[in-house]
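step=encode ok
step=design start
structure_in=
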């Protein structure tokens, strides 16, 4: 695989803080966004970066003050499902990805995002 950079892309995140330094507004934009590079508002974000040298995961998780618990439940349900999909694509470990999907389903049922079976 060729490692020569052919193009770059930028992702920008702006976090508006109140006087207690709590997030009250967040926007993101991307130079590759099909809807244009204008900022789009969001209520929560999870960002994980794997450091090349230290092999540690660095993470930022933020949410605005008006994020409701039901919205956080949905956000985590969708994130857990997405993580299981990503894990499978990256490793081809079908068995473990399936267990992760099962947990996402359990989480969805417990938070009533999806109906209980």
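sequence_out=
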């Amino acid at each position: 695989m060729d490692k020569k950079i052919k193009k770059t892309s930028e992702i920008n995140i702006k976090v508006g803080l109140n006087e207690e330094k709590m997030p009250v507004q967040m926007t993101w934009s991307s130079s590759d966004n099909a809807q244009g590079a204008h900022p789009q508002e969001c209520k929560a974000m999870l960002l994980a970066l794997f450091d090349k040298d230290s092999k540690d995961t660095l993470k930022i998780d933020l949410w605005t003050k008006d994020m409701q618990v039901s919205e956080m439940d949905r956000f985590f349900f969708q994130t857990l499902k997405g993580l299981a999909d990503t894990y499978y694509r990256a490793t081809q470990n079908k068995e473990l990805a399936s267990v992760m999907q099962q947990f996402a389903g359990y989480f969805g049922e417990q938070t009533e995002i999806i109906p209980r079976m």
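step=design ok
step=annotate ok -> The two ends are 45 Å apart (CA to CA).
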